[in-house]
UniProtKB/TrEMBL annotation, chain A:
Gene3D superfamilies: Winged helix-like DNA-binding domain superfamily/Winged helix DNA-binding domain
Matches recorded under Pfam families: PadR
InterPro entries linked to this entry: Metal_resp_DNA-bind_regulator, Tscrpt_reg_PadR_N, WH-like_DNA-bd_sf, WH_DNA-bd_sf
Classification lineage: Bacteria, Bacillati, Actinomycetota, Actinomycetes, Propionibacteriales
Name of the protein in question: PadR family transcriptional regulator
Amino acid sequence: MGKQATEMLKGTLEGIVLAILAGRSAYGYEITAWLRDQGFTDIAEGTIYALLVRIEQRGLVDVEKVPSAKGPPRKVYSLNAQGSEYLNEFWGTWSFLSERIEQLRQQITDTQGNGE
Amino acid sequence: MTMAARWIETITGSLDDKKRWRAYKARVRQLPPSYRTAVEGVERYLMYTGPADGEHLVQMVDDLADLFERAAADGTPVRSIVGEDPVEFVETFKSNYGLSSFLRKEQRRLNDAMERAEKEGKQP
């Protein structure tokens, strides 16, 4: 994963994590592992953890401590009503952004096409 | 809380925060050496750049200990926790717990300066 991809991912990571949690509850390690499987190989577990702390503080997720066979209990996160609302807002923003950027690319491709 | 205890706390900071700080230090001592080195590195950086008030600081190091204890149990290598750019990781982490009093003051100054500039621009 390149530097540009990492930078771009930063702004959308919160929405991505909320979207994962909309599918099912998960703990930090699972979320990081899933992202790595999807090709986001540079994601640090600590970055995901920092984000989970933030969305917990903002009341977007519910947290349950589940005992673990080895080590301290795991914190399992699940999306709550406020989180779902916030996720809807994220999808709206995402649609807006991706449409405008695609439009921009189309315009530029068209202009270049005419110039030749 | 007794009068005496309250009086002492205004001078030394919260006793509860101190207790939590000592508990955190004890947790760090239990970590395997490489995780301990990593946590102490983050702790040092937080001391210089982190939030000024004790309550936010102890909350932050508690959460930090949770992260590293869990990672040690899972066998996650330190580099996978902190990433290629540890400064960025700590800055992201830190942003959840408020600003240092120094930074807060400077940001207020910056905002004030812009408000003054705006007013000056409106004068004929």
